[in-house]
Amino acid sequence: MFNFFKKTPKVIDIYSPLDGELLPLSSSPDEAFAQGMMGEGLCISPTKDTLYSPLDCEVNIFHTLHAVGCNNGTIEMIVHIGMNTVQLNGEGFKALVPLQGNVKSQTPLISFDQDILLSKVETLITPVIVVEKPETATLKIIKESGSVTAGELIMQIIL
Q1: Catalytic pick from 80, 81, 88, 130?
Q2: Which range marks the domain in which residue 144 is found?
Q3: Position 5 in a domain
């Protein structure tokens, strides 16, 4: 009857870090991602060449520039551009910000040359994974298929 004591859940919005096509995580060519061993999330097949921050966070861009870790103090994420791109040792990638530091959502982080990368690896399918969240939190996928634009809401963490 009365909702005076009902707690409104806190929500962390996660925005698409890329323009592209959304795919379920199970479609990742890497079994560790596909089976959810790294965490929950989805994949994006990029159609443009810039990776943006999915939320306000501290970023840690891998020295090989193929992936970025994001930590906002409550959750940790990883965005991994393509498969087997670590072996390229940064070739075809360019950091647009310092490798570590605080950024706002939708800050351009990494640019990549799709032609160079696809001449060396099979796919640029990019897992967007929540690797760490509070035990009581749940991940809600807002949009898991179809085309997506960088900055579009794709997931939420409900605390």
Answers
A1: 80
A2: 11-158
A3: no
